[in-house]
Fold this protein.
Amino acid sequence: MKLSEIAEILGCRLIGDGSVEIKGIGEIESAQPGEITFLTNPRYRKFLKKTKASAVIIDKPAEELTLPQIICKEPYVAFAKLLSILYPEKLPPPSISERAVIEEGASVGDRCYIGANVYIGKGTKIGNGAVVFPGVFIGNECEIGDNSVIFPNVTIYDRSKIGKFVRIHAGAVIGSDGFGYAFSKEEMKIYKVPQVGRVVIEDFVEIGANTTIDRGTIGETVIGEGSKIDNLVQVGHNVKIGKYCFIVSQVGISGSTRIGNYVTLAGKVGVAGHIEITDNVTVAAKSGITKSIKEPGTYAGFPARPYKEWKKIQALIDRLPELYQKVREILKKHGR
Amino acid sequence: MKLSEIAEILGCRLIGDGSVEIKGIGEIESAQPGEITFLTNPRYRKFLKKTKASAVIIDKPAEELTLPQIICKEPYVAFAKLLSILYPEKLPPPSISERAVIEEGASVGDRCYIGANVYIGKGTKIGNGAVVFPGVFIGNECEIGDNSVIFPNVTIYDRSKIGKFVRIHAGAVIGSDGFGYAFSKEEMKIYKVPQVGRVVIEDFVEIGANTTIDRGTIGETVIGEGSKIDNLVQVGHNVKIGKYCFIVSQVGISGSTRIGNYVTLAGKVGVAGHIEITDNVTVAAKSGITKSIKEPGTYAGFPARPYKEWKKIQALIDRLPELYQKVREILKKHGR
Amino acid sequence: MKLSEIAEILGCRLIGDGSVEIKGIGEIESAQPGEITFLTNPRYRKFLKKTKASAVIIDKPAEELTLPQIICKEPYVAFAKLLSILYPEKLPPPSISERAVIEEGASVGDRCYIGANVYIGKGTKIGNGAVVFPGVFIGNECEIGDNSVIFPNVTIYDRSKIGKFVRIHAGAVIGSDGFGYAFSKEEMKIYKVPQVGRVVIEDFVEIGANTTIDRGTIGETVIGEGSKIDNLVQVGHNVKIGKYCFIVSQVGISGSTRIGNYVTLAGKVGVAGHIEITDNVTVAAKSGITKSIKEPGTYAGFPARPYKEWKKIQALIDRLPELYQKVREILKKHGR
């Protein structure tokens, strides 16, 4: 593809020779001639002069450069678009393996790929264009929406409802029992609380590898439209996650918590049960959220507090040696 | 089922019309007419007046209510019992799939369900009434006790011993190699320490989705009777967990640590290796246990300490800005 | 095996009766007559006098003992070597299951075990002597090196390259999509960043159960030669881990971070994205690394800092109640 064509598709201004042939995309440090690269993170600016790439996508013209530049206000978005054009995903073509088990009353839509060793339970409906990789287990009375992709060795328990254009990565478990036990002091006995609800995953959700989402005790665990969940995340029973949230790797969300729309939980965040997080909240990595968050904004720490407060307290903790020193001096003056 | 029947089964007092027909159980905010609901967590008391449910299970009579009430000292226990009556678990009926591989010398008890694509290794014994879902791998010379349920895509390594009425959720791994390497400074070489022990899981244990339990290096990793382990928990080699423990999601327990009976480790707790935690210990979420805990009680923090101490220190950390302010004032008085 | 033979194989000095017959290895607390035990961790020294073992491997002669001793400078290394002699790993003998699916253009080397319900994609090459357990999915155009062992229910995405003598434990996921999305403020829309790179795992690497390693967005995610990764670890896209690293359970490493050689990250450590950690760094459990680490050494805390600094600040935090008390006294003296 010619550079001028790329600029046109992206709707971006081109500086330099548009006739350059582009064969692929490379990282700024390792791109080869014939590849286009991009600059989004200022940390990598130092590589800009040395890159062997034949062109660069960048937000503002870099005058020091001789190589052609495509100027995009949002270079990372342009990069994402270009990747999807140059490297369209190769999913297996439609076919239903003879080694798949499809129980009675289950239905599979048009143009589906159902791989070897897949199990589809009774009464389950698989939408058109769905891709179900080998080793996937889908229980009874589930729904998988059109064009969703279920990667290998995923387990989906009974009655789960998965929307359209959902992607669930390998090893994820959808609909496992919530962690519910009732301890009777009267009888000194533990009763398991049966988990009889289900999981609902709305359209355009992506779920990471080996993530676990428990079904509702009664009622539903819900992952809202367009939300993205990373690998090894735990979502407890009856949690409701709103729309367009980002839940980063190793986050844990305890049961019955409600998370609004446009919420980002960074890596390893823990969230207590039975609380609410409002819309437009971002929580820094490794934080622990113990109470409801009612105001939009950025939070950090354990217990989580507004980011600025946390920054201040962190700085003071760093200065503790100095504080102790001062107090010692004062005490000395007092003759102690 | 009539409300009066439910009250009778639960052995609880009924206030109001016992002839009401109950078709299901609903959450207090979303229950529909014909459903019974329950109140256990005071946070939800605000929904009590507005609920559309036809009856409520509650610990003390709520005089403001007109809807019928079942008065149970332990409403959550009553809820658990009622759920198991109204929604008995639907496990697949006994059958052995032609697509299961059962190696020579393996035996399967009566009334078992062995799903498609299950692999059962040489010399392994599956007890009566066991349920083994599709995609499960069970290695050689294992034992699975009567009435245990192994959910899809679980892996059980060789020589594991699983008791009766055990439930192991999807994707869990039992008996993987412990993380053991011996570094020789003499030879500047890493030697893998062969992991030749096994895992023993006693009766009535439940293990969450994608949890991993390493086998002993030599000797055993043991999960004691009735203990419950949530999703994505790591249990290291040679760990011994006692009876009736609750290990919440994303906890990690390092090798050779011994945990007593009736211990609760809340979400994301980390436990160092080669230590001991006595009986009746509860540890708050996100804590890190670095030393043995010899006294029963509640602990928190990193390093973990008695809960009250931790609370105090947390409060003082919150007040650090104020403390700095005071010290600054004192210094000013001293003319600095 | 006679004790004298063991001493000879290990190249260690024997004290006591070399004619004792050794049938196995036992832990110091639970070893039985006929077994040899070992002492590496001083915590267990108290068991030395009481052990029923018939011999002990120890670093220095223990004069109080009557049982025979093998004196090795590095007893844990000796223990590892002895285990591998006495308990050689029993892998399944070569054979290719009729229930494995091997797509066209895939090749399987000599002396391989390919278990039931394995899926091997188009163009994938499996080296000589490789062991692929039941339920494993290997995508298209992958390479698995000679003598590598892939345990059950592992998923390996397309184009992954796995070296020789690699071990990947059950449920691990290699090559899942990185967590990459580009949010366009202009269009108020989330674009998925296609993940078109791959994972490269070099020779002698071991990867734990249910660990997830995302493939590069473009370019590669690399696990360097001889590095060992424990269970439930997350490795983000484009991460490069050097040679002979130890990454302990539940660690999370964010995208594009570079880790040097001989780095140890203890349990639950979190590492930010786009940073660098130099060679010979050790980071204590539960730490959070937010910035590049340029000097070898030991680090701890969140944010991570040199271990000694962290120790000091931890100690001062413990003494906060005392500090407040002192400041209160001073203020009293000042009449407030």
Residues 16 and 68 of chain B are 4 Å apart (CA to CA). Chain B touches chain C through 60 residues (CB under 8 Å). Chain B is about 15% helix and 30% strand.
